[in-house]
Amino acid sequence: MVRILLASQPDLPPCDVYNEGVSGEFIRRLLDTRYDKAVKTKPPADYIFIRYGLNDRSKIKDFDTAFPSDYRELLTRLRQDHPKAQFISMTVIPYALDNLHEDINTVIRQIVLAEQLPLFDIAPRYLEELKKGPNMLNYRRYALDKI
User: Fold this and answer.
1) Residues with Cβ < 8 Å from 91, sequence gap 6 or more?
2) What does DSSP assign to residue 98?
3) What confidence tens digit (pLDDT) does each residue in 28-67 have?
């Protein structure tokens, strides 16, 4: 969608957008299984948006220690493989009514501060939309034969 929106602007040069997100993925799995083929081999990037945390929270034992370490390892590899890219860290969306996302976003904010990265904080907007009703910014894919 981002590529299509950018292409619709006549004053912008053509661009490619790569979405390497995989449902259920966490940083360690990306680094250990897909990084070399899915990320390292891509053409040099101008911008890289990084949004991890939700699955990391549920998949790794010592989140407060392992997640920042994995995140920094990802940044190190990205900086090596895409040295001209601007990295933009993103917060995670609320995943429970009790604001359980905030523990993850606190760690992300700490990393962003230490690494001097820009932060794209999507959580506040998401929370505002949820006040209008459940799933206001969610979408689900259903096979046409299931509708």
Assistant:
1) 51, 53, 101, 104, 105, 108, 109, 119, 120, 121, 122, 123
2) T
3) 999 999 999 999 999 999 999 999 999 999 899 999 999 9
* Cβ atoms within 10 Å of 78's Cβ, excluding its own: 18
Asked if 78 contacts 39 with a C-beta cutoff of 8 angstroms, the reply is yes
Read off the tokens for 119: 């932060």
Given a cut of 80, whether residue 94 has pLDDT beyond it is yes
Q: What is the CA radius of gyration of the chain?
A: 17
Cβ-based burial of 101 (10 A; exposed 0-12, middle 13-18, buried ≥19): buried
Element (H, E) at 107: helix 102-115
Q: What is the pTM of this model?
A: 0.85
